[in-house]
Specification:
Nonspecific Lipid-transfer Protein, Chain A, five-stranded mixed sheet, single chain, Four Helix Bundle (Hemerythrin (Met), subunit A), alpha+beta
Length: 252
Amino acid sequence: MTSSYLDLRGRNHLHVLAEENDRFIMAARAAGWSSEVAACPGWNAAELAFHMCKVQSMFLGMLTTDTDNPKDLPRLQRPESDDGLVDLFIAGATQLEHVLENTPDTEPVWTFIGPQPAAWVKRRMAHEVLIHRFDAEIAAGELSQTDEVVCADGIDEKFGVFLPWFGDKVQLAHSVHLHCSDTDGEWMLGPGAGGVTVAREHGKGDVAFRGPAQLLLLALWRRITVDEALDAGAEVFGDRAALDGFVAAFGV
């Protein structure tokens, strides 16, 4: 699962990454640097922004040097001023976007789950900054709407990257069906050897979680609770406890 689950309306993940980089730093500044980030205990908006700088620096270093271990890269220094933090983020975003734009999708590159095509990094970074843009907006007190196709792709990317990475650390005793109500996007999840199995298909699970793609994505990343998703228009059918257990285990 390295490429888009759906057609991103003629765009690609680099387009999404560039847009989300802009939206992220605007949201972080609007929140106020001292604002707490609810999903990341102990972090404020400034620490969230510096985290994104470090992630950018890690992938940039692994793409442009001969090292095979990110621990060998120079340690990124945090700027002393807020303006310096903004400048560091923008510079890192611009450099990484340029390097990724000039790296063929099929070229093998380093990732934290082992070598993958460069398309994997383009997709991962697009959704990394999207989720943290949500964090910054939540800190500011107002979530903005996001393209439902991008959100559905984000759900698929989370399953494709993190279920294999977690392996048997995430278990399901029941089957779960997720269904986006505002765009194409359905997944069946169930128990399997060594973890959770996932298939892009319609089916009947022990529990179904249906709603706008953005609500499902936010709930799966535990940026909102399932109850908050329900209050905003999502629906749960069947064994609610099975859904809650899966979200709790997989919602990092």
